[in-house]
Every structure is written in structure tokens, then in C-alpha cells.
Amino acid sequence: MLGRRTARVAIGFAATIVASFMLLLVGSTGAYAHGYTTTPTSRAYFCKLGQATNCGPIQWEPQSVEGPKGFPNGGPADTKLCSAGLGQFAQLDDQRGGAWPVNNVTAGSSYNVNWTLTAAHATTDFKYYVTKPGWNQTAKLTRSALNLTPIKSFPYNGARPPNSVSHNVTLPNLSGRHMLFAVWTIADTSNAFYQCSDLNFR
Questions:
Q1: According to the UniProt entry, where is the signal peptide (predicted)?
Q2: What is the pLDDT of residue 32?
Q3: Cβ distance 160 to 127 under 8 Å?
Q4: Which long-range contacts (CB under 8 A, 24 or more apart) does 70-75 make?
Q5: Which of 22-31, 49-58, 120-129, 178-187 is predicted least confidently?
Q6: What is the pLDDT confidence band of residue 199, given thresholds at 50, 70 and 90?
Q7: Distance (Å, rounded) from C-alpha 42 to C-alpha 19?
Q8: Hey, what CATH class is 33-201 in?
Q9: DSSP assignment of 144-168
Q10: pTM
């Protein structure tokens, strides 16, 4: 009898420790908010679809590319923009010599950027940036490679978006291979979500 009671106490104590740890983890990372872009297909989503390989853990959690907010003055460090500075997602920063799958787009056209939010959250805004003409396509993404004036901003002023979000933007008049850098800034945490998509302007 004593053995069973001791076992029940031990199991209850272990469960309490695990629950406390999970609460601490969620509270410290703002883990309630998650999302990724499906159009244009982001690197993270290509990995989830299996259309990009050797991706590491991002293939199971494309919604988790979360880092400090404040881009472009703050946020993830240069060369770590696509991974949001998270070491477990470092594969997203590798340009792979241009081997990432691309989204074919038309220069100057109207285009819908679509997000899937697996957990919506109070939102400051969504902003979209595109690389400059002549950017170094073989180097990891940096601020100097991007036009830091977003092609479009969508303020939410703390409102909570739906789980499916679509934003209409006008694509710049560019040619060849470029990158779209999408930033979803959360209002009530210190973080934002980042997505990199490879584009081919035609």
C-alpha cells in the first residue's frame, strides 16, 4: 500500500513539474501566436510540403519562425533574418546556391500574400519587404540587400486577425530572382514572426 501511495505522489509531483515548466516556456516565448506564409510559398512552408529537403526541424513547425520584433532597426541580426536568429532553423538562412524552390510572379502586378495563422494574436502590423536590384543572391540575407521601405504595410492596432489572412500588394518592377521578407509584428509580446519567400520576377 505504501509503495502505491508513494508512486502516486511521485507521479503527481512529476506532472506538476512538467506543467509548471510548460507554463514558464509559453509565458517566456509568447508561444500562443504562430503563422507562416502560403502565398508566396515561404521557405518554411516549402519544407513542410517536402518540396525542399534537408530542412531540419522547420519542416514540422513552419509557424515557429519567431524572433525579437522591431525590424528594421531591431529584430534578428543580419544573415539570420530568415531563421529569426533561431539556431534550429538556420537552414532557412542558407541561400543554397539558388536551389530553393521559387514562386513565379509578374513584375508590377497585384498580388495576394496569404498567411496561415495556427494561433492568432493581438497584432501591430504586417509588413512586406523585397530585395533591391543587384542584391547578392549567393549571400545570406541582410538589411543592406533589402529595400527597407516596405512595399506595403497593414496596421492592425492591436486587433486579432483571423486564422487565414490575405493582403493585397503591388509587386515592384523587378526582374529575375528576388526575396520577399514578410514580418508579422505581435502587439502584446516582444516578438514578431518572419518568413522568407524566393521569387522569380517575369
A1: 1-33
A2: 53
A3: no
A4: 70/192, 71/127, 71/183, 71/185, 71/192, 71/194, 72/129, 72/143, 72/146, 72/148, 75/183, 75/192, 75/194
A5: 22-31
A6: very high
A7: 33
A8: mainly beta
A9: GGB-SS-SEEEE-TTPPPPSEEEEE
A10: 0.85
Residue 35: which residues within 8 A CB-CB, separation 6 or more? 63, 115, 116, 117, 118, 119, 120, 165, 184, 193
> What sign does the CA torsion over 51, 96, 92, 126 have?
negative
The residue type of 131 is T
CB neighbour class for 101 (10 Å; exposed up to 12, middle 13-18, buried from 19): middle
What is the distance between the alpha carbons of residues 8 and 65, in angstroms, rounded to a whole number? 39
Residues in the chain, total: 202
pLDDT at 26 over 80: no
Question: Which of 194, 199, 196 has the alpha carbon at shortest distance from 84?
Answer: 194
